[in-house]
Amino acid sequence: MEIALIGDRHTIYGFRLAGIKKTFLIEDSRQEDIRGILKDLFEDSTALILITEKIAAKIRVLLEEANRFRKGIMPIILQIPDSGGPLISAVDPMRELIKRTVGFEIA
Amino acid sequence: MADILQNVKPTRMELLKLRRRVKLADKGHRLLKEKRDALISEFMIVIKEYKDARKRVEENLKVAFYNLLMAEVLLGSRDLEQISGITLRDINLDFMTKNIMGVSVPVMKVDNLIRRVHERGYGFLSTNAKLDDAARNFEESIGSIVKLAEVEESVRRIAEEVEKTKRRVNALEYIVIPRLKATIKHIEMRMEEIERESFLRLKKIKASLEARKK
User: Fold this and answer.
1) For labelling alongside B187, which of A38, A107, B102, B167 has CA 20 to 30 A away?
2) Is A73 in CB contact (< 8 Å) with chain B?
3) Is A8 within 8 Å of A28 (Cβ atoms)?
4) Could you say which residues from 9 to 68 on chain A have a Cβ atom under 8 Å away from some Cβ of chain B?
């Protein structure tokens, strides 16, 4: 099964050097284009979709929709830092998840 | 006081049936609570793994992007773009699932991730060592990224299950069981009432019989 990458120019160069074939360059693309890409990826045998945090931040609604649309356990969408390093967001979704699940924060 | 169940007749049969239901609900409640606690302890373990995996990915990518930048500086953007187009291959990702406390979580594996320099497909004449480093770093990053994806998805799935179980535990504890117990109490009181009524009726009959005898 395959790995796909949705990212900016530099992220794509890097991962292509490592051999990832399915890369989609997103620079000022419209939401609809990304939706189309995600739809195609959901339909073929892609197991893991990597997406840079910056792009993911712009299409949060779309990603939530995609996660609901997903039937089985595949594909997994993972956000990765791009060349600018990890984004520091005001609300860390994982931290929120932990808080909600366990009931308190763990360091 | 909790609501009582509707449409329940105050009979002994119903009472016995309700008592059985409470017993079952109690048992279910206890089991679900145990499941919840077990899931949470599992959750703590994957959270720890998640944090380590995230850190590793961030560190790997930081080095990788730095080397990529260096390679770009030495080669120029256009050459880098061309070279990145010829190193493609099929990366085979093995995708399986594992079962943790009834939650299926992914297990992924990639073989032959790190290639030798001559296996990448670009020429040595027009490239430099920084490019080799960058390619190697990105290959290593994919390994840690796959691990992170696996762990992150596990965290998410287990969290989902914990919430579901919590909701069930609470529904039993605060709604179902109190309601059943209230209904039992209600029936018991009604039956006592009926008993008292008939006792009183007997007394009255007895009194009137004796009055007639005299």
Assistant:
1) B167
2) yes
3) no
4) 10, 12-21, 47-48, 50
